[in-house]
Amino acid sequence: MLRRVAFLIFCGMLLTSTGTPGRAQDNPFADIVVVWLVDGTLWSGQVDGEAQQIAGPDVLAVSRSPDGRYVAYITAGLDRLAHDITDAELVVLDLSTGEQVTSIGSESLSAGNLEDYLVLEFSTPAWAANEAVLFNTQVLVEGPPGIVNRYDIQRLGLDGAVNELVPAGDGGVLIPNPSHQLMAVVQPGIYSDPTAPGSVRFFNSQSGEFLPPAYSFDAVATGSEVPWLPRITWHHSQPQIGFAIPDPDLLYTPEAAPETKICRMSVETEANCQQLAVGYPAQPVWNMDLTRLVFTRTDAAAPNSRQVVVASPDSTVLTESPVLDTWPEPDLWLNDTHALFRTSLGETSGYWAMNSDTGEITGWRPTEEPVVSITKPGESMLAILSGGYMRQTISLYHVSSGALREIAVVEGGFARFGEH
């Protein structure tokens, strides 16, 4: 499904670092490059440097290589809004030189078993180490939803070679681990077909092979044409993931939330899932070592309010906030003990930090302008989008020191972060 975002779409915010270890310790912002999209054009910038356009127009999704040297992005013409998707292109760009390394257009996928199938532009390409880009293809079908993921896995090498690693139906959406050596491969399943469950599997991006174990779950209803997929969080250093599977019917009442499966799974162990009452949309946010997760749920005594809850994977509630009537939504973890959530109602709208040990909540606003969106690209580093409707500032914020540095100012539209 194509989402139309007016004015400025900020998608695929990426950070790369090419500085020496010593310099990085003295200056955590040294040589960090930020890459963003502005109205279909791809831009880059860094602290003490000037922002510049490096690609475009019609760029839709961006992903960086683990070493930060390359970016892969997908382009498409605006006629794609009319389901004319014959001009999709996947491009690899060398950030150090600004030169195009390789590309593949939809016409290059029109041979053999890929006839009539095109690059899936609504999914960010996933890097396999620093050597290749993995992606899914899609097909147009009559009737809703119109565009369907084939759930295959294709590989584009830096030499331009294209290979099908996994045929249609046997792959899925790709979520790489921090080193991009492994991928979590997810299929949503089909809610109306009990014989077509969803699945979570591990995939070795180097060998092109699936690894045990695998986890199956009942497909979840969404009430729309968009399939439901669990939010996958990789452990920062181990081959382990955390995710949650809600009640497949998504039946939530003001009085109580149904039990949600809180799962951890590694390439060495089967999924270990515990039951926990989690509020809609049942997508808890895990910390980096998968020891805590934060979510919201409704209090039976105040059905129009929510509590922010921190729990351990064994379903033990560690702490919870007072009842809040500002509709809090967990966003990410500042570190292993402090979770960030945002509120969108009332005078207290904005970001808040919650101490998961004590439950203490404090306002969080490191910028002069209101924080619109944040993302965490690396250890102790945040990218912050702040400002208003027609003017936004892109900044880097070092969590440990509290230092803030401006990257660029964008005027004339509304900005939005987007991650792989």
Describe this structure in words.
The protein is an all-beta fold and 420 residues long. The protein has 1 helix and 35 strands. The protein has one helix spanning 21-26; strands at 14-17, 32-38, 41-46, 52-55, 59-64, 70-75, 89-94, 99-105, 118-119, 126-128, 132-135, 137-140, 147-149, 153-157, 162-166, 173-176, 182-187, 198-204, 209-217, 233-234, 240-245, 259-266, 272-277, 285-286, 293-299, 302-311, 317-320, 329-333, 338-343, 350-355, 361-363, 371-378, 381-387, 391-398, 404-411. The strands form 9 sheets. Strands 1-2-3-4 form a 4-stranded antiparallel beta sheet, with no helix packed on it. Strands 5-6-7-8 form a 4-stranded antiparallel beta sheet, with no helix packed on it.
Write the layout of secondary structure elements.
Layout: E1 14-17, H1 21-26, E2 32-38, E3 41-46, E4 52-55, E5 59-64, E6 70-75, E7 89-94, E8 99-105, E9 118-119, E10 126-128, E11 132-135, E12 137-140, E13 147-149, E14 153-157, E15 162-166, E16 173-176, E17 182-187, E18 198-204, E19 209-217, E20 233-234, E21 240-245, E22 259-266, E23 272-277, E24 285-286, E25 293-299, E26 302-311, E27 317-320, E28 329-333, E29 338-343, E30 350-355, E31 361-363, E32 371-378, E33 381-387, E34 391-398, E35 404-411
How would you characterize the largest beta sheet? 4 strands, antiparallel
Output the radius of gyration. Answer: 21 Å
Multimeric status of the protein: single chain
Strand order in the largest sheet? 1-2-3-4
Averaged pLDDT: 82
Query: So what's the overall shape?
Result: globular
How much strand? over 45%
Measured distance between first and last alpha carbons: 17 Å
- The total beta strand count reads 35
Uncertain segments are 1-24, 78-83, 110-122
The number of helical elements comes to 1
Helix content: under 10%
Class inferred from helices and paired strands: mainly beta
